[in-house]
Amino acid sequence: MLRIGLTGGIGAGKSTVSAAFSRQGGVIVDGDVISREVVEPGTEGLAKLVEAFGPGILLPDGALDRPALAAIAFSDDDKRATLNGIVHPLVAARRAELIEAAGDEAVIVEDIPLLVESQMAPLFPLVVVVHADVETRVARLLQYRGMSEEDARARIAAQATEPQRRDVADVWLDNSGDPDQLAEQALDLWEQRIKPFAHNLRTGQTVPSPAQLMPADPTWPDQAQRILARVRTACGHRAARVDHIGSTAVPSLDAKDVIDVQVTVESLAVADELAEALLRAGYPRIEAITADNGKPDTRSTVAEFDHSDDPALWQKRLHASADPGRATNVHIRVAGWPNQQFALLFPAWLSADAEARNEYLAVKREAERAGVEGGIEAYADVKEPWFDTAYRRAWAWADDTGWRP
């Protein structure tokens, strides 16, 4: 099952995207629809709203007067929090029922207006945000929903800001133009990314890392933060820490466009326990890789940094992304083992040492050229000898500077 979080501000056009996904076979779980369902006459939800806000929120026939409720609930933060505290748990329970009924093969599209505000983004392997500027949204709310301008602006102001939505968006769909253009974007997204993503999850396939280096992307850290939040949520208390590692964690360093993440755990047994949770988050396990290449013995002024080349201490588990739109490696390593500590040290050392950083880039470019003709083994054959020396140099730098993980 692939779960997609779909969100956007009121009037942005989520319904257009939702409809496009539905036509392709997506199972739509609509937060607005559920929100209306859980406060219909006779429901527990409606009774709690009346208790909190008074009988003035009811129509003569006993149904909820939504404009009257909105005028009260959106007048200040405390009242809005009361509304959310009543409705959100009921919506979540009903959403869970619908998802369970959809089956393991489904692509679930959860249309959640307040996905950002409720901090639900890390629950989804893919978050799609539909955006339109404020003035466009106000005009739509006036024309199609009959709102007053004051009410429309109040509703927009009460929701997440554009920067807050960008922070969680894996995909950003702009709906400032024609709705048909948005529907085309949604269809392309389904065919090029969502459909193969779902297939990869069903079959346990991962996306290969890019073969070529690219100029450093200033958005890599922001992309990594979304992945870290997703992985932390999937791993829960079993992860001692989750870090962005590898070349994309080094500012201004050209690299392959792949985000490397390290999950630190207390044992390999715990790493194995995380396999299903990471699969649900979009990261199948790569069974064939169970260890890193060992490095030479090192001795440090700090006893805990004395490292052995014992192969048993270089074991790990590796997961990678099934999402064709974001190559990612998730390395699970044991706390205190040399491979776990070096993964944290390496980007810190390169970030601080310009000479080492330039050396590494030159080695990467040479390895890239070798890999074009000889494949991944030729690529590794060029890099590994440099790493043996770099390993000792990095730990010497840690001793000199007092670096700690």
Automatic annotation (TrEMBL):
InterPro entries, A to Z: Depp_CoAkinase, GrpB/CoaE, NT_sf, P-loop_NTPase
CDD domains cross-referenced by the UniProt entry: DPCK
GO molecular function list: ATP binding; dephospho-CoA kinase activity
UniProt protein name: Dephospho-CoA kinase
Principal subcellular localisation of the protein: cytoplasm
Lineage: Bacteria, Bacillati, Actinomycetota, Actinomycetes, Mycobacteriales
Enzymatic reactions: 3'-dephospho-CoA + ATP = ADP + CoA + H(+)
Biological or metabolic pathway of the protein: Cofactor biosynthesis; coenzyme A biosynthesis; CoA from (R)-pantothenate: step 5/5
Functional description taken from the UniProt entry: Catalyzes the phosphorylation of the 3'-hydroxyl group of dephosphocoenzyme A to form coenzyme A.
Binding sites annotated in the UniProt record for ATP: G11, A12, G13, K14, S15, T16
EC main group: transferase
Localization annotation: Cytoplasm
